[in-house]
Amino acid sequence: MTALLTIIAVCLDALLGEPRRWHPLVGFGRLAQAIERRFNLTAGHQTPLTLRVRGITAVVIAVAPWVLLAAVASRIPTLRYLVSVASLYFALGHQSLRQHALRVYHALTQGNVDQARSSVGLMVSRDTGNMDTQAVATAAVESVLENGNDAVFGALFWFLLAGAPGAVLYRLANTLDAMWGYRTPRFLYFGWAAARFDDLLNYVPARLTALTYAVVGSTRAAWRCWRLQAGAWESPNAGPVMASGAGALGLALGGGAYYHGQWEERPPLGMGTPPDADAISAAVRLVRLGVVLWLVAAVGIEVVEHA
């Protein structure tokens, strides 16, 4: 039944995309902002340990009630299927990721560089105002590969492993990391718990995502790039995902980029040619093929378990 519920949720995401109104994550984001203002003390002298403890407390307060609610609701016979499908549907961002990426693709193919910069700016945190077309395509492809894990395969993994509570836990933790997990003076210590918790939840999904890219893309190149390049990337989870994805697509990614006005050197990823507009659609297709592979695997595992 879990495989069927997964397929239904994936189909709903493909048909409806993210809700434009009343998205639960919007409300959760407001709640997280309120909690952060209450617990992240910036006045006076606060030790790193104090801020980290307060950050841990904030994560628990923000996430635990909703996970418990999902766990209880998913055990009620009249609600469990609806809660399960809804939890995964709200946790998935596959269609939204596809739509964002294709806006960049269409802008580049139409020669509208300003629109492409604006569109890719909604996908990445780096500075986009002075990007050329290659830099825009690189940013878009990297975002699709990394968010293939964060917005798609990570949610699928935790739902298949732990049902509705797993999907809720993963999505809320990932949201807190996106809000608090920055190495800025404000979040360096307070956001430590959110960042580390997200790293922990993504450890296995990230490597399964990298494996998925290798299976549905250029397998040998993906394996080689994963093995040789992933360790040089700053993030222990993004490294395998992006190195494998770059190799699977036969692209040269990585390299320096501007973040908040500062140039940051980044290791090279992949092998082959620099990305262009067509590389964006290829990355979108790679993630889509990966989703199909996961659904087929989920059905196959369930059939074997009940044989």
List the defining traits of the structure above.
single chain; 307 residues; mainly alpha; two-stranded antiparallel sheet; globular
Task: Tell me what the structure shows.
There is one protein chain. The protein is 71% helix and 4% strand. The chain has one domain. It contains eleven helices and four strands; from the N terminus they run H-H-H-H-H-H-H-H-H-H-E-E-E-E-H. The strands form two sheets. A two-stranded antiparallel sheet has the order 1-4. It is globular and about 50 Å long. A hairpin with a 2-residue loop joins strand 2 and strand 3. It has 307 residues and is mainly α. The two termini are 14 Å apart.
Structural class by SSE content: mainly alpha
What is the count of helical runs? Answer: 11
Q: In order across it, which strands form the biggest sheet?
A: 1-4
Largest sheet: number of strands, sense, barrel closure: 2 strands, antiparallel
Mean pLDDT: 92
Task: Provide the low-confidence segments as ranges.
Answer: none
What is the general shape? globular
Q: How many beta-strand runs?
A: 4
Radius of gyration: 20 Å
Give the terminus-to-terminus CA distance.
14 Å
Name the helix and strand elements from N-terminus to C-terminus, one letter apiece: HHHHHHHHHHEEEEH
Overall number of structural domains: 1
* Share of residues in helices: over 70%
Q: Percent of residues in beta strands?
A: under 5%
Which helices and strands, and how do they pair?
Elements: H1 2-16, H2 24-39, H3 48-73, H4 80-91, H5 94-109, H6 113-121, H7 133-180, H8 192-216, H9 219-229, H10 238-249, E1 252-254, E2 257-259, E3 262-264, E4 268-270, H11 277-305
Antiparallel strand pairs: 1-4, 2-3
Helix pairs in contact: 1-4, 1-11, 2-3, 2-7, 3-7, 4-7, 5-6, 5-7, 5-11, 6-7, 7-8, 7-10, 7-11, 8-9, 8-10, 8-11, 9-10
